[in-house]
Amino acid sequence: RSHCDWSSDVCSSDLFHGKIWQRVAKAKYYPRMARKRGFEGKPIVAFTLGRKGDLIDLKIIEASIYDLLNEAALETIRRGTPYPPIPEPLGKNSISFNLPISYILER
Description:
With about 110 residues, the chain is α+β, with helices and mostly antiparallel strands. The chain has three helices and three strands, in the order H-H-E-E-H-E. The protein has helices at about 10-25, 30-35, 65-80, and strands at about 45-50, 55-60, 95-100. The chain has a three-stranded antiparallel sheet, with helices on one face.
C-alpha cells in the first residue's frame, strides 16, 4: 500500500470510501424477526451521495430472498446519513457505491 498524501485523488478516494464503509457498518442492524427465524442473506444496495454527503438515490440491485433483510439493508444506508462530503480533490458532484450488506448469524 503506497504512502498517501492528501492531494492525491487515489488517497482521497480510499479515505473517503473507508469513511463511508465505517458509517454504514455503524448503522447496520440485524432485524430481530429475521434473527429469530434464522434468515440470512446478502442484499446488495446501490446508492448515490451528493457533494455534501446527502443521499440522492438508493435501491437494491441484488435482493436477498427475504424482504425483511432487503428492507433492513435500505434502512441501514438511510440511517448512515448524513455521510461525509465528497473530498474536493475528487472533483465530483456525486458519487455512487454498490455495497453488499451481509446478514449472517453466528453459529
